[in-house]
Design goal:
Chain A is 8% helix and 27% strand. In chain A, β4 and β5 form a beta hairpin. Chain A is globular and about 50 Å long. The longest helix of chain B is centred in the last third of the chain and has 16 residues. Classes of the chains: A mainly beta (164), B alpha+beta (202). At the A-B interface, α1 of A face β8, β9, β10 and β11 of B.
Chain lengths: 164, 202
């Protein structure tokens, strides 16, 4: 892994649960699974999908997990574009929330959580396939490329200004 | 027990038969039809088949082949060249081979690699599209298996080959998607391919 930018470290900063609908969320995609024409649904998944929130992180920071991810593509979507609810099989009510889950070396780390009847669902096998495919489809309609694959980018060191 | 074995690339369907002149069954032709998605077929002991003719279905076309053998056949393997010359599909089979080598946490999100079943079903599906005007946009590992995307303009068909062996197809044009569960059976796969072609080109 490349050296962690100082602005990416948690440094005792608190969890911030408030998200603006216009805040961007970033996720990396392998070069072989990316093209500039459309977003690959295979790149998205429930439950607890990891992303980087733009209030505290830059898109290129999504490439810093491991050295082999250095030239992966980064895609992004607005918090407001995460599907809010899906009714499944006529009786299950699923809802989705973005949660700030800061890590020591990745303060902007966040996750998209799924809830069935207000209960957080973390087991992959508990996610109905048809519901999850519908969720992925809706999300990908509003997702867009942010950094193309194989394109080097300067890694900014400081956290974005919260008021930008 | 004698075995008809297919290589890991698999096939969509195969038909093999005994040659009556060689099988020693008084001219009675031994015919065995094997239709389906499978890796191997075990012959019964009394099926003294000494030659096999057959075909591998490639899209809507069949590629024929045969193995005359000097003695009883204990194991028949489909020559790998049967599965070659797949044209534009070759990179996607290579991609599947890459996917089969992924390790846990391949994406840095702690994701498990796709299961063998998912890769096998994806490969069998691609086998069925050989010779057709149906080139994938993506063949990708996903957090739940293997995803194959076909696309034309705003219309997309996303197939998820799940790690538990199930297959789902999503047809999307930006509106409410149509999602179908797909049974792993040759006639269902052929209908799915026809549906995909109709959806993208209709």
């Amino acid at each position: 892994m490349a050296e962690t930018p100082p602005g990416m470290l948690r440094s005792n900063r608190p969890r911030v649960e408030l998200f603006d609908d216009d805040e961007m969320l970033y996720r990396r995609v392998a070069p072989a699974d990316w093209n500039p024409r459309r977003i690959n649904r295979a790149a998205m998944a429930l439950p607890d999908m990891s992303v980087i929130r733009s209030q505290y992180g830059h898109p290129e920071w999504a490439r810093l997990e491991k050295s082999e991810h250095a030239l992966w593509a980064v895609v992004g979507f607005r918090v407001g574009d995460v599907p809010k609810t899906i009714q499944h099989a006529g009786m299950e009510f699923w809802s989705f929330l973005v949660k700030h889950i800061p890590l020591d070396e990745n303060y902007p780390h966040s996750e998209v959580w799924a809830f069935r009847d207000d209960q957080h669902v973390q087991a992959k096998q508990s996610i109905p396939k048809e519901m999850e495919l519908r969720w992925r489809d809706q999300l990908c309609q509003n997702c867009r490329p942010i950094i193309p694959a194989n394109e080097p980018r300067e890694i900014r060191q400081e956290s974005p200004s919260p008021d930008k | 027990m004698p075995t008809l074995a297919l290589p890991p690339d698999g096939a969509c369907g195969i038909e093999a038969r005994g040659d009556p002149a060689l099988a020693g069954h008084d001219g009675e032709e031994i015919r065995k039809s094997f239709q389906g998605l499978f890796d191997s077929y075990s012959l019964l002991k009394h099926e003294d088949i000494r030659a096999v003719r057959g075909y591998v279905r490639q899209g809507i076309q069949d590629k024929r082949f045969s193995w005359p053998q000097p003695g009883p056949i204990s194991k028949v393997e489909v020559p790998r060249e049967i599965f070659q010359n797949s044209g534009t599909l070759d990179p996607w089979f290579a991609r599947l081979a890459e996917i089969s080598n992924l390790k846990k946490d391949w994406d840095g999100y702690d994701t498990e690699p796709p299961a063998t079943t998912a890769i096998k079903n994806a490969r069998l599906f691609l086998d069925c599209t050989r010779g057709l005007d149906l080139d994938p946009e993506f063949v990708s590992p996903s957090p739940v298996g293997v995803g194959i995307t076909f696309a034309r303009d705003v219309r997309e068909v996303y197939l998820e080959f799940y790690n538990d062996g199930q297959i789902y197809a999503l047809f999307s044009d930006g509106g409410e998607p149509v999602i179908k569960r797909i049974e792993v059976a040759p006639e269902v796969i052929r209908q799915l391919i026809s549906d995909i072609q109709g959806y993208l080109h209709g």
